[in-house]
Amino acid sequence: MTARGRRSWIAVTLAAAVVLAVAVVIAECWSGIGDSEISEAGWFAMGFGIAVTLTLGIGLMSLVFFSNRQGYDETARRDPR
Q1: Does 81 reside within a domain?
Q2: Same structural domain for residues 3 and 18?
Q3: In this structure, are residues 38 and 46 in contact, taking their beta carbons and an 8 Å threshold?
């Protein structure tokens, strides 16, 4: 594995750890509020919604970058001449 690939994996792992840590802190703060209880189904629904939203966002952004690199956007531009 190259140094660049290793740095990429380290960055991804670090980002995932930060997201997980923030999620744990938010969950602890939320349960410490008191009267606001979320059922198991509510936690599942929230997690599922977050996962679907992230998947959709990542997928659409990947399509934008792929389209830009392949030059598909160039045919839509018109010369202002």
Answers
A1: no
A2: yes
A3: yes
